[in-house]
């Protein structure tokens, strides 16, 4: 549900001792890493993550009260970029726990030996099908559905029905309306690509993307730019005078537009094209070589605890992974529950991801 889901400003108070660091590389900080510099006896645990990670102040304070550890965040860009940085520093990690690798990139992280196995407390409560590693090198944290979102006002004004399926997006009526993220470095972009492979087949997705390109799809680097700068249906997009009424985002994006509107509307200004969805699961893992293993394990336990899991929907706007977590009313009222999302088997993703992305890049970006 990376991140790439940066809907709200980070709510981490300095008074709680929760620090947010930029992790863009090229500085002394990125090479030493907070977790790596504080030593094994540290009461600080460093969570390396993509920019979309967010948690309530009260929840992080509860973790500190329960465990004695203070969380320090090292945010490192989009999900793909964050993972790339960890691969470059593997064995001498910049922190203790990494959050944000999803099922589309998981094999890459595991093949590079980034994580130390740890069976987190509470794994018996996670949803079926979300545990993909028998060695427990990663712990599932959230799920979400990557889907095309549409600007309701645009389509109402044009008296045009919004697209509902991948095939609909190829119709001339939707020419020059869609913006998506780069599949090479964005998890929503990669998820959307995999959705087209799942529905069009390995023999048909190339032809599909050629047609989508001919129909004017726009590709930008990441979710933040696509949703908040290019998409006319978002609050940020309206402010930026964006002109794309279709965007690859999440089934849970509409509640955000309601939650942060002032005054709150009775109906979400955006909708979800429910036939364009791909199921994503995000994971966290104890980094191999972490200086604060004890703190890292405590944090992994906490991430699948009920307190953090019930905090997930309104902070990262994805679904909790544990079955006993309650969803907030605004989430259930204005979000979409996708019954039959597209999926691709993890082993097939692992075997073909790099080639699929290279082929996509040559067809669409170059």
What is the gist of this entry?
The chain has 366 residues and is an alpha/beta fold. The chain contains 16 helices and eleven strands. Strands 1, 2, 3, 4, 5, 6, 7, 8, 9, 10 and 11 form an eleven-stranded mixed β-sheet that branches.
Description:
By secondary structure, the chain is of the alpha/beta class. It has 16 helices and eleven strands. It has helices at 28-32, 34-38, 57-67, 79-88, 106-111, 152-157, 187-200, 205-214, 223-230, 235-239, 253-259, 293-303, 306-311, 313-316, 329-334, 346-364, and strands at 19-22, 44-49, 70-75, 97-102, 115-116, 139-151, 178-181, 218-220, 246-250, 270-287, 319-320. Helix 8 (205-214) runs parallel beside helix 16. The longest helix has 19 residues, at 346-364. Mean pLDDT is 88; it is low at 1-19 and 22-38.
């Amino acid at each position: 549900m990376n991140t790439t889901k940066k809907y709200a400003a980070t709510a981490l108070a300095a008074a709680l001792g929760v620090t947010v660091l930029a992790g863009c590389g090229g500085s002394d900080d990125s090479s030493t890493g907070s977790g790596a510099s504080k030593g094994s006896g540290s009461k600080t645990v460093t969570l390396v993550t993509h920019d979309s990670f967010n948690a309530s102040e009260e929840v992080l304070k509860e973790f500190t009260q329960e465990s004695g550890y203070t969380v320090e965040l090292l945010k490192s860009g989009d999900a793909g970029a964050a993972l790339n940085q960890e691969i470059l520093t593997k064995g001498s990690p910049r922190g203790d726990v990494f959050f944000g690798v999803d099922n589309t990139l998981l094999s890459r992280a595991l093949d590079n030996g980034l994580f130390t196995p740890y069976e987190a407390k509470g794994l018996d409560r996670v949803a079926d099908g979300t545990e993909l590693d028998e060695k427990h090198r990663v712990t599932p944290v959230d799920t979400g559905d990557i889907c095309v979102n549409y600007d309701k006002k645009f389509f109402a004004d044009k008296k045009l029905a919004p697209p509902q399926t991948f095939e609909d997006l190829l119709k001339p009526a939707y020419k020059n309306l869609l913006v998506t993220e780069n599949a090479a470095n964005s998890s929503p972009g990669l998820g959307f690509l995999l959705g087209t492979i799942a529905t069009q087949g390995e023999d048909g997705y190339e032809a599909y993307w050629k047609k989508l390109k001919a129909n004017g799809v726009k590709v930008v680097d990441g979710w933040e730019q696509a949703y908040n700068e290019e998409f006319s249906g978002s609050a940020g997009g309206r402010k930026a005078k964006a002109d794309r009424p279709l965007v690859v985002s999440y089934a849970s994006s509409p509640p955000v537009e309601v939650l942060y509107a002032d005054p709150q509307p009775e109906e979400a200004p955006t909708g979800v094209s429910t036939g364009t969805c791909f199921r994503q699961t995000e994971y966290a893992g104890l980094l191999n070589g972490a200086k604060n293993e004890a703190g890292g394990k405590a944090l992994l336990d906490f991430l699948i605890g009920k307190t953090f899991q019930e905090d997930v929907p309104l902070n990262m706007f994805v679904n909790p992974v544990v079955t006993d977590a309650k969803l907030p009313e605004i989430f259930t009222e204005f979000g979409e529950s996708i019954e039959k999302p597209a999926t691709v088997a993890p082993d097939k993703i692992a075997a073909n991801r790099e080639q699929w992305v290279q082929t996509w890049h040559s067809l669409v970006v170059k």
